[in-house]
Design brief:
The chain has 382 residues and is α/β, with parallel strands linked by helices. Helix content is 45%, strand content 9%. The chain has one domain (2-165, 187-200, 260-373). It has helices at 2-6, 11-14, 61-70, 74-84, 99-114, 117-122, 165-174, 178-187, 196-207, 215-227, 232-241, 247-253, 274-288, 310-327, 348-373, and strands spanning 28-29, 46-47, 125-131, 147-154, 162-163, 300-301, 306-307, 335-344.
Length: 382
């Protein structure tokens, strides 16, 4: 699947796609092939990758130094005490007398208690615990001094291919309305799964000022070129050339019901097949939540693509690539399908709330990812 992976990265980055160093190594920059000339809403992307193990715990380098040289074990002890309230740790305490060494052990066991093992095995996942000074401030700029941050995400783009077109047709035939609802449940997952809706929203955010289409951007740039003395035809051509992604392209590659804002559906009252029941339960719970603790990074790509077929997969990759190449001109950080949570080590109530939410959201992600893996196929290399 290396060919599919390279669709997401420009050549210079894709050549080093397997290099280690996520959250640890030096930053990597895109080498842009072309510029869309659009507004740079955020900084570009500097790749980071996880180690081979899916769990990168802990990344408390600064905190560990304090523990080693100042015998300060309050932070790891408080983290363990908060986790113990939702995941009893008694059986694991004998594994290590050192709180710092115990943290990666118990967090791994915690994840394994609610996430499908196949998801942990198949995806390059990373969970980190970081002091505020180790957090990438370009991605998360609202972390307070002395906060502790838990960060979860995909270490790189997953080139696994999940063509759901046939499955959606079967569900729709047997359960009218379920196909759209299933895509909505996948799109609602806070850990970005790269559904048609997710990719459309990404294009809207980076290319259209958040609008439904590029009209406002085009008119603004057309007016700028006219003021600069260009003819109408020249201004029109120049303005059009700066649009990275046209909304018409989505209509050419996706059925409108898979991405259009006006046609999105949240409610489904029909029966749900057993394999989707847990996803439905978690989706309903998520919609009812009044408050979320997680932070979404300022620059984040989908680390997974949920496609209908090869055509839609390739187009989704192309959209991500165009935007990435344009954003890369600014330099800076980026990540794939990542969320973060922050709390003060002295706020035990907030810490417990964060851990409960992490469990809920990662369970939601795990159920969705397990469903996708059940529909995985080999990408057809023509």
């Amino acid at each position: 699947m290396a060919i599919a992976a390279k669709k997401i990265l420009p050549e210079s980055a894709a050549e080093n796609f397997s290099d280690p160093g996520f959250f640890q190594g030096e930053s990597r920059k895109f080498s842009p092939i072309a510029s869309g000339g659009g507004k740079c809403e955020t900084n570009g992307y500097a790749a980071k990758r996880p180690s081979a193990a899916y769990l990168t715990l802990p990344s408390l380098e600064t905190v560990q130094e304090l523990i080693s040289y100042e015998k300060n074990i309050q932070t790891p002890c408080r983290i363990l005490a908060a986790l113990n309230t939702i995941f009893p740790l008694n059986r694991y305490l004998r594994l290590s007398p050192d709180p710092v060494s115990l943290i990666p052990i118990v967090f791994q066991k915690w994840l394994e208690s609610f996430m499908p093992q196949i998801v942990l095995d198949k995806f390059n996942l990373s969970l980190q615990i970081l002091p505020d000074r180790e957090v990438d401030c370009e991605l998360f700029d609202c972390i307070e001094e002395e906060d502790i941050v838990v960060q979860f995400g995909l270490g790189d783009f997953s080139d696994r291919w999940f063509p759901l077109g046939g499955a959606l047709e079967r569900y729709e035939k047997e359960y009218p309305g379920l196909a759209k609802h299933l895509l909505k449940m996948l799109s609602a997952c806070p850990v970005n799964l790269g559904t048609p809706e997710d990719v459309y929203e990404m294009a809207s955010c980076y290319c259209w000022y958040g609008n439904d289409n590029e009209r406002e951007v085009f008119e603004e740039r057309y007016a700028d070129y006219r003021e600069s003395g260009e003819t109408e035809d020249e201004a029109r051509d120049y303005a059009r050339s700066t649009i990275l992604v046209d909304s018409d392209e989505f209509e050419e590659h996706f059925p409108e019901w898979t991405f259009k804002r006006s046609g999105r559906q949240c409610h489904y009252q029909g029966p749900v097949p057993p394999e989707l029941l847990r996803m439905k339960q978690l989706f309903d719970r998520y919609r009812k939540r009044k408050k979320s603790e997680y932070l979404f990074p300022s620059v984040c790509y989908p680390g997974i693509i949920v496609a209908l077929d090869q055509k839609t997969f390739d187009f989704s990759c192309e959209v991500i690539n165009r935007i990435g190449e344009d954003q890369a001109q600014c330099g800076g950080s980026y990540c794939f399908s990542t969320l973060a949570w922050h709390f003060s080590e002295k706020d035990s109530r907030k810490m417990k709330s964060v851990f409960r939410e992490i469990r809920f959201i990662l369970e939601y992600f795990g159920v969705c990812a397990e469903f996708l893996l059940s529909h995985e196929k080999e990408y057809p290399h023509d």
